[in-house]
Design the sequence.
């Protein structure tokens, strides 16, 4: 689950199971990776900043190894 959506300054990923290690990717509409980092969710939650993102649509991917375990769209409206 990805919320709030639309987001302003932050977004939260919630996973009902803890899987590690994870790779978080946030990609803009032009295919540019804005975030591509390893993460360690705490209690199934991971919060990331969207404060520097412009208004628009973004794609959020969560990978475990080479497997995509989550893919979603995130709207930013400030």
Sequence:
């Amino acid at each position: 689950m990805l919320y709030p959506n639309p987001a302003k300054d932050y977004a939260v990923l919630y996973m009902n199971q803890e899987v590690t290690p994870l790779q978080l990717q946030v990609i803009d509409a032009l295919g540019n990776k804005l975030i591509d980092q390893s993460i360690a969710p705490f209690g199934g939650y991971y919060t990331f900043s969207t404060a520097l993102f412009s208004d628009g649509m973004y794609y959020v991917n969560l990978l475990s190894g080479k497997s995509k375990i989550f893919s979603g769209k995130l709207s930013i409206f400030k």
